[in-house]
Inverse folding.
């Protein structure tokens, strides 16, 4: 009798086994749907928090311009090493705040929002460093006057081909592949700007959620200003020049018109 029972349980073609698998699949699908619904609610809540923090897109844009002017007028341009020191301090603060948020609820809206900003910040900061090395390699090649005055050097510095929506997938892939090999200065500029913005977002949300210890607020504010002063300058948003190790890049007029 025991052998028959075991046979029925282990037989993949048995009715009991089929029902068990169906229940498993149904439970898995139900759990996945529930998780998806929860994630969607969290995203919506984070969106409303962003509006509460920054206001509408026009207000956010105006405040961003005011911040950049404040940094230009009131914060001295730090050296790269001073920037790195400040960024490292902020990175540690990010980890401490995340640990605090996680201890209060790993499934909370607050933890998910801060984790998302933190992950994107660390990923983008790595991209910023990669684009810096790529640009430095190009600038060293540009020490040859003949190459520095060539179209090839110009395109590698500035050119990014836009991909209109009318393109086929194959054409868009070709544009993406081409853009990966040119426009290195624009990559570096964009990455610096995004890192500056992500730092602001993380700490603005952390403050909104009351997750920044009172004794850490002045330190965070100081090093956030130092970091953003450097990053926005390297993005071409503040002055008409930027320093990259031994190279100075300067321009006339608005950076984004180049």
């Amino acid at each position: 009798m025991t052998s028959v029972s075991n046979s029925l349980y282990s037989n993949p073609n048995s009715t009991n086994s089929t029902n068990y698998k169906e229940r498993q699949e149904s439970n898995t699908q139900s759990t996945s749907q529930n998780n998806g619904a929860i994630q969607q609610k969290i995203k919506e809540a984070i969106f409303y928090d962003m509006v509460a923090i920054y206001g509408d897109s026009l207000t956010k844009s105006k405040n961003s311009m005011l911040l950049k002017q404040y940094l230009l007028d009131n914060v001295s341009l730090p050296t790269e090493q001073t920037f790195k020191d400040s960024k490292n301090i902020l990175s540690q603060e990010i980890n401490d705040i995340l640990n605090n948020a996680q201890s209060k609820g790993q499934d909370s809206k607050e933890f998910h929002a801060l984790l998302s900003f933190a992950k994107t910040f660390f990923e983008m900061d790595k991209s910023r460093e990669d684009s810096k090395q790529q640009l430095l390699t190009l600038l060293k090649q540009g020490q040859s006057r003949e190459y520095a005055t060539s179209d090839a050097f110009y395109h590698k510095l500035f050119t990014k081909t836009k991909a209109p929506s009318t393109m086929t997938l194959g054409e868009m892939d070709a544009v993406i592949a081409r853009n990966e090999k040119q426009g290195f200065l624009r990559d570096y500029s964009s990455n610096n700007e995004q890192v500056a913005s992500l730092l602001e977002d993380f700490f603005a949300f952390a403050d909104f959620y009351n997750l920044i210890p009172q004794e850490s607020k002045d330190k965070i504010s100081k090093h956030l200003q130092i970091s953003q002063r450097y990053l926005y300058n390297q993005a071409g948003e503040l002055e008409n020049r930027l320093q990259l190790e031994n190279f100075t890049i300067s321009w006339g007029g608005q950076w984004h018109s180049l």
Notes: The mean pLDDT is 83.
